Amino acid sequence: MVTEEKITDVVLARYRLGTVLVWSGVITWVPFIVLRMVGEKPSLFLFLPFHLIGVLGGARLRAIARKEMRALAPKKNLLRVIGHGLIYTGILVWVPYFYLKLIVQQPVNVMKFLPYHLTGVLSGILFLGLSYLINRKAVLQT
Question: What are phi and psi of 133, to 5 degrees?
């Protein structure tokens, strides 16, 4: 028999699986970075599909689970706007890279773009985390 508790457990498991997928998509780059540090030149396209599947798939799973849990959307504030803007900017760094690599077919060093991507995405996550903590503190005080 399906009970409300079992449904909640499944939704919570889906949310946790989404988190694991996001982190596995991020951790995918560890071997790439290590190989680059020792002087190898691994193909970006070998790691990119696993990164995108993990990060995008995990984010979708988490969003679906949040809807199923009827979790309230986080309050929009300046920190969230800045955080999302930084993440989008960090992702958009790859547009000129892929333009030069695929359209112009010019040799491009991925390490000239990766620091900007990481700076945008990680600082955006930091702003989102700060926003979450501030909102949570405000909710707990009321």
Answer: -65, -40
